[in-house]
Write a structure and sequence with these properties.
Regulator of G-protein Signalling 4, domain 2; single chain; mainly alpha; 234 residues
């Protein structure tokens, strides 16, 4: 061990070793390694925090989430081609639903598919006791004015749905869900079929990261009355 006086040249070198200050410094230097060898509670918490942040720690849970379905199982070109047969066919496939959801996120309109999924889950409720809390959550999240993920519904559909929230039935959100379904089918779905990520899947290429695009305006069901999807990509 180096001389403590050499480690602290600013100290008075003329101080003798029998002075109390020298003894205190010598004792502190001996105790320092001993303290470092025992990690405190703060260090343990930091190590646990780093462990929880490692990707492999959450890998098993992440594979089960909708956003990672394409990672868990690759999509063949044949499967991707089937998604173009109909919008219903796309949503019936887990990987297709995931791919479409990611596409909507690039257009900042993922609230539509999230609402549709919530309605599908709502209709699967096994008892009337499950309907009321689910209906309230869906209404507050997607339908009421200034909801965090408000979907674009016409006035009549929103009013009818709002009136039925007090005594919800399995069919309470059917009209609203059908409206949002048609909007996605006639607007977002044709653009999805023309998108580079989807075309790359059809051609057997690795999907490129999509470019984020903001919507120029919000659409309503009236914008698409009498309009048929554009499938010229095929």
């Amino acid at each position: 061990m180096e001389n403590p006086l050499l480690l602290f040249p600013q100290l008075n070198i003329s101080a003798s070793k029998d002075k109390p200050y020298y003894k205190v410094m010598k004792s502190a230097i001996k105790e320092e390694p001993h303290k470092a060898s025992k990690p405190g509670a703060k260090q343990k918490r930091n190590r646990l925090s780093l462990l929880l942040q490692k990707p492999e720690f959450h890998e098993r849970d992440q594979l089960g989430k909708p956003g990672n379905l394409t990672k868990a199982a690759s999509v063949s070109p044949e499967e991707a081609v089937k998604w173009g047969e109909s919008f219903d066919k796309l949503l019936s496939e887990k990987a297709g639903l995931d791919a479409f959801t990611k596409f909507l996120k690039t257009e900042f309109s993922e609230e539509n598919i999230e609402f549709w999924i919530a309605c599908e889950d709502y209709k699967k409720s096994k008892s009337t006791h499950e309907l009321l809390p689910k209906a309230k959550t869906i209404f507050e999240t997607f339908i009421q004015k200034d909801a965090p993920k408000e979907v674009n519904l016409d006035f009549h559909t929103k009013e009818v749905t709002s009136q039925n929230i007090g005594q919800p039935l399995p069919t309470t959100f059917d009209a609203a869900q059908n409206t949002v379904y048609r909007l996605m089918e006639q607007d977002s779905y044709p653009r999805f079929l023309r998108s580079d990520p989807y075309l790359n899947l059809v051609k057997g290429r690795n999907p490129a990261r999509p470019t984020l695009r903001r919507r120029s305006r919000s659409f309503t069901v009236n914008d698409f009355q009498g309009v048929r999807p554009d499938f010229t990509v095929w």
